[in-house]
Amino acid sequence: MQKYIEQLNEAQREPVLQKDGPMIIIAGAGSGKTRVLTIRIAYLMHQGVDPFNILSLTFTNKAAREMKKRISDIVGTSEAKNLWMGTFHSVFARILRSEAEHLGYPSNFTIYDSQDSLRAISGIIKEMQLDRDVYKPKQVLSRISNFKNSLITVKAYFNDPDLQEADAMSKKPRMGEIYQNYVDRCFKSGAMDFDDLLLKTNELLTRFPEVLAKYQNRFRYLLVDEYQDTNHSQYLIVRALSDKFQNICVVGDDAQSIYAFRGANINNILNFQKDYEGVKTFRLEQNYRSTKNIVEAANTIIDKNKVKLDKVVWTANEFGPKIKVHRSITDNEEGRFVAATIWEQKMNHQLHNGAFAILYRTNAQSKAMEDALRKRDIPYRIYGGLSFYQRKEVKDALCYLRLVINPKDEEALIRVINYPARGIGNTTIEKLTIAANHYKRSIFEVMQNIERIDLKLNSGTKQKLLDFVTMIQSFQVINENQDAFYVVEHVAKKTGLIQELKKDATPEGMARIENIEQLLNGVKDFIEGQREVDGARGALSEFMEDVALATDLDKDTSDEDRVALMTIHLAKGLEFPHVFVVGMEEDLFPSAMSMSTRSELEEERRLFYVALTRAEHQAYLTYAQSRYRWGKLTDSEPSRFIEEIDGQYLEYLTPVESNYRYKPMIDSDIFGDVDKSKLRLAKPIGGSPPTPEEPVKPDSSIRKLKPMTGSNPSTGSANLFDNKLVAGNVVMHERFGKGQVINLEGVGADKKAEIKFEVGGLKKLLLRFAKLDII
Ligand code: ATP
Ligand code: MG
């Protein structure tokens, strides 16, 4: 037996050795699903399967690259090169390019990112003179996206009275028309949005049996990682392609299904056995990633979910340290705690930055973390958020490049036609848009024919439009013979973009020029990478494809050692020795927007399961008692998820707050099927709450404040100790000086102390904010 197969355990080996037929591997986090897929591909090749016949679909392109690298190590680079691997979007974009003509699209079609789609929708809403407050562009786009992922075309929409009625009920009776206009506009621009890449693939495979047959024959072996997060559209593609040979292997974990909000359908995994005949089901139970403590704690969480497949996850790894729970007063203090802990762990254990990940529920939480890391000079990288390619100056440059490849691209054209300023005003652009809609042509084509169309433009304006057309065409000529780097540099200069940016000598302005430089560096890297791989020319179109389909994780190309910051959604499939899950607060995680039904809450719980199971050695759960949200300081309570973990797996770094009361949802509609007697005021973590009437008693366990020991990285702010304060304590206040606590009142975030200061007399201070030291 090959050595690489010997490295698998028996349960993992079985699905690798099973060459043909439909199979599903359902297993918990860290049990080697992705590893099995990788080894399976290598083994298929060793058994003589042509790499051209293998298609493997992954969650990110980065994951695909890593898999390919491992396979290369086993079977050799030249063989592995021919494997088809990548995300659904990148693989099918490639197929759509070669088959575009079937669908009436040019093969150089543009791929719109969500910003482009949003601009197009906004434009349509404006042209239709609809109220933006009713037809909120983001909502409209998300509704259209849902249609597409459920394969509801415009025609299907107008044939479905229920859908129309639903929109009418939500005061958007013209949704269908917007959908129609958006589809027309994309088509006219030779553009597909992200959802189109799947929708059009489905269209291609259903409308053209010969195309379907071609790809069925090509992809004799299909493998899908993270199958639990496929949506309906992806599901149908997989089904269609695997229908002939039925050599399909999917792996997934129903407990990690976290994309229902984007249309992922957990039933795809639950129903797999019904979809194919003779499905072999494999289960992996041994986790190799995490300590016993983490694995067992994670099991206790997921046990709380009702909808799940029964699964066992265990590990032979050491027990490891308990999960550390930390409370802070504010989100900034939470950031300081995280940064201080990383700093200390690095010092004490000689760890590198890449050993740490900070995971959060929403991107907005990264700021406090970033500030704190920066103060300690700890290098970090943020994944997600506003991507590099969406920064204004970078996107401007990219839009010119998009026009070079596809001048029909309207969103790109509208964005840069008058930037840098060339005297082409909004009225002119509006006239062009109307004419383009009228003639069912692109704006660029209207401009090319501007002498023949009467738009009541003066000759100066017409000349400016023609100059723009000529400029783009001259770039196209250059693009035919030069590599991407040459073209991008040329375009940045000739369009006046760089000169325009240079006018702004402020640090922000300089940073914008640096971003353009970084774009050029990116192009250079890309070309080099291309040459290394298969001697490709490094054409602009290839670079642009890469940019359009890059997932947030894909941009991680440099080897620099940095702490990783990302949302939990992005962290799926990854692993880190030390993981901080921050913002463990009610309304934030679980999110306030995902608590109205049991299934939403269960999805949040699965998300928490994903977060915790990213940790190999040590997990931290942190929460703040107050944080800025939507510009307002908001009080918060610890997440119910902390309490859901069996206490034996937790270690509290901060004293458990005795006064906070954890509010479960007592809305019977939400937990209709739950025993209401259990919905008492849940006990606070680690202790029972005082009854509301009961006065807050002084706590005899309170010791004098002593400096934090070196091993506790908490960052000093004295109001950490608000719960330790008792009447009689002598305290030092940053501004008021020395004083004595006379009385305490209120609970939790509202807790106040009446203090008699030596200078200044009696003052009542909200402990949440007071900067006090007990002396
Ligand atoms: P997730 O559900 O998070 O995607 P997974 O099931 O895909 O996890 P992998 O990422 O494949 O799990 O494996 C988790 C870790 O365990 C990896 O570091 C992998 O290399 C290691 N691992 C898996 N199987 C074995 C094994 N048989 N021997 C040693 N290490 C293993
Ligand atoms: Mg995996």
From TrEMBL:
Q: Where does ATP bind?
A: A27, G28, A29, G30, S31, G32, K33, T34
- In this chain, the stretch annotated as Disordered covers 682-717
Q: Which reaction does it catalyse?
A: Couples ATP hydrolysis with the unwinding of duplex DNA by translocating in the 3'-5' direction; ATP + H2O = ADP + phosphate + H(+)
- Which EC class is this protein assigned? isomerase
Keywords, sorted A to Z: ATP-binding, Helicase, Hydrolase, Isomerase, Nucleotide-binding
Read off the InterPro entries from this record.
Answer: DNA_helicase_UvrD-like_C, DNA_helicase_UvrD/REP, UvrD-like_ATP-bd
Instruction: Classify the source by domain of life.
Output: Bacteria
Domain (UvrD-like helicase ATP-binding): residue spans on this chain = 6-291
Q: Where is the UvrD-like helicase C-terminal domain?
A: 292-573
Recorded E.C. number(s)? 5.6.2.4
What's the protein name? DNA 3'-5' helicase
Q: Which organism is it from?
A: Flavobacterium taihuense
According to the entry, what is the taxonomic lineage of the organism?
Answer: Bacteria, Pseudomonadati, Bacteroidota, Flavobacteriia, Flavobacteriales
